Amino acid sequence: MSGPTYRIQVRPDFDLHATADVVGYLADLGVGQLYSAPLLAATPGSTHGYDVVDHSRVNPELGGEPAFQKLRGALREAGLGLVVDIVPNHMGVAVPAANPAWWDVLRRGRESAYSRWFDIDWSAGRLRLPVLADDPAALNDLKVVNGELVYQELSFPIADGTGDGEPRAVHDRQHYQLVSWRDGPSYRRFFAVSTLVALRVEDPAVFEATHAEILRWGADGIRVDHPDGLRDPAGYLSRLRAAAKDAWLIVEKILEPGEQLPRGWPVDGTTGYDALSEVCGLFVDPTGEETFTRLAGSDRGGEAWPDVAYRSKVEVASTMLAAERSRLARLVPDVPEAAEALGELAACFGVYRSYLPSGARHLHAARAEAGRRRPDLAAALDAVTARLGDPDDELAQRFQQYTGAVMAKGVEDTAEYRYTRFVALNEVGGDVSRFGVTPRRSTDRRRCATGTGRTR
């Protein structure tokens, strides 16, 4: 890769045709490659593209294949490369009918050819879809229209031979169950977003089906969204590298202060949120720390940042991510307090996740801190920790996926909105506790840095 990379949020009102038309301008600026938002077919009307609904085609709302080829031709003529953003962790299901694979799973249940695509807890019974109003009588609003079950603006398929009778009776015969939006789903999701269902790309067949079109493009670079949500990030990245040997490969890995990218990952770097944090720190005067700390302390009753973060993570683990915690606890039926212990360990985890056997020290540190804060849970903490260190244990594998969600929702989306000592530091991948960075400490000038969800 040569020269700077310029990101364009390709979207329906600035599609691939419009993007192709500005390539000459980007070349005049000295740009080396264009970095695009996700380009696969997404939820109708999506302005971001991270809610893919069909991996087999370029998004028709962006101009489809003809517009994509127009962009590729313009880039080749101008001598620019193309970096594409891909989303291996999840798919969009806000409009069920727009996602052919999901629609088939809803219609056929476990018998669907696509049931293996999604990380569904079939042991929990019917597939729970949290779409209803928080009203016990919400199911009374169901209708059967044109052979589909309809709730407000949402439509759902009806399994063969189950469409006779009143709408509620039809609903009760489906492979899925509509529940309150406040209830958790029986599938893994992107953080707490129930309209983004998690994929099982650790399955080679799922990887192939969801990546064939992307790999056909032959992009010069690939940006991998949210690898920490995957069951086996290292295995996934190895498979992707083997399929895209010459691509510049970067990952959206959020590194905590002092944390290093896992050794052995076949990537060229991260999206550089930590580098952005250092650049931001250069513009923060360290001499102001005492004053701002005093002001923040008086505003929050003296509560320190570590306590704000811990309390927020515990809250998130036991509320908006309670469904995920319960799924974990069901894997430890012999420990009555397993759910609470798992939530405490996640709240005390100092990084987004471990990659066992690498990172086991973070689990041990979390156990020590959880024991300090909740000595009453010592027995349960010991019981679950003994299993969480085994990389072959499903509990450990799923817990690693869970801690990242607790960190993101608990710290980024909760604690950083409560602890407002100096909000410029409250950024994804930042370090709220570090007030300013000296030029001497910021020495690595070779890093990549891209915008976070907040800077965008």
Biggest sheet: strand arrangement = 1-2-5-14-15-16
CATH structural fold name of the largest domain: TIM Barrel
Provide the domain count.
3
Main sheet, how many strands, which sense, barrel?
A: 6 strands, parallel
**Percentage of residues in helical conformation:** 25-40%
Q: Judging by the overall fold, what is the CATH architecture of the largest domain?
A: Alpha-Beta Barrel
Taking all residues together, what is the mean pLDDT?
93
Can you identify the CATH class of the largest domain?
Alpha Beta
Corresponding CATH superfamily of the largest domain: Glycosidases
Q: What is the terminal-to-terminal distance?
A: 23 Å
**Rg estimate, integer Å:** 23 Å
- What is the SS-derived class? alpha/beta
- Enumerate the spans where pLDDT stays under 50 for 5 or more consecutive residues: none
Instruction: Figure out the total of helices.
Output: 15
How many beta-strand elements?
16
**Approximately how much beta-strand content do the residues carry?**
5-15%
Based on Cα principal axes, name the global outline.
globular
Task: List strands and helices in order, with pairings.
Elements: E1 5-8, H1 16-21, H2 23-29, E2 33-36, E3 40-42, E4 52-58, H3 64-78, E5 81-86, E6 90-92, H4 100-108, E7 127-132, E8 143-145, E9 148-151, E10 154-157, H5 167-172, E11 176-180, E12 189-190, E13 193-198, H6 204-216, E14 221-224, H7 233-243, E15 248-251, E16 269-270, H8 273-282, H9 289-299, H10 305-318, H11 322-329, H12 338-347, H13 360-373, H14 378-388, H15 394-418
Helix pairs in contact: 10-12, 10-15, 11-12, 12-13, 12-14, 13-14
